[in-house]
Amino acid sequence: MVSENDALRLRRLVFYAQDIDRINAALLTFIKKANAQCALVIDKEGHMVSRQGFFKQDSSALAALVSGSFASTREVARLLGEPEFRTMFHQGPGQSIHITLIGERTLQVAVFPAQVKAGMAQVLCKELAVQLDVVMADAGRRKPEDAKQETLGKNFSAEMKTQLDSLFGNL
After folding, report:
1. Which of 45, 78, 80, 100 is the most exposed place for a label (fewest CB within 10 A)?
2. Per-residue model confidence (pLDDT) at position 102
């Protein structure tokens, strides 16, 4: 039987350096292509996974507020008989924000200037969602033992001692 703590650990999505590199590359390409101000990937609890671009405000606060907004919208969806809404879009006179559920655990958030048309933002966010979904699926399937383990070389201690001795002399 799996304890509650073990079950939580099994459900947790873990990102390794190669995952973050893939996410960052997708976000950077998206920002250039979409003329977005910034793009974030956050988990459903509002924790930052990755951020690219420039955002004048506190991006951690944005992540937390978006997460809460998405959670409340999920309840609205249930009231309407939907399992959940996978996309949210808010448009203001100066900026707009597009939020998309990626897989079941992460959200893609993009902030656009008013010049970017809503339809174009939605199309480009959908393209990004497909790319990020592949990364999230790969991360979700990986077992901890599958991760590439970076280890120190066998002679690391001896090499480090030699380097320190050459710098500081034999102390």
Report:
1. 80
2. 94
pLDDT at 144 over 80: no
Beta bridge partners of 91: 96
DSSP helix/strand/coil, 158: helix
In this structure, what CATH number is given to the domain that contains residue 136? 3.30.450.30
The pTM of this model reads 0.76
Q: Residue 109 is part of which domain span? A: 4-168
Average pLDDT (149-154) is 62
Q: Sort 133 into a burial class: Cβ within 10 Å, 0-12 / 13-18 / 19+.
A: middle
Contact 73, 80 (CB under 8 A): no
Structural domain total, the chain: 1
> Coil, strand, or helix at residue 72?
helix
- The CA-atom distances, in angstroms, between 76 and each of 8, 72, 73, 79, 108 are 26, 7, 5, 5, 20
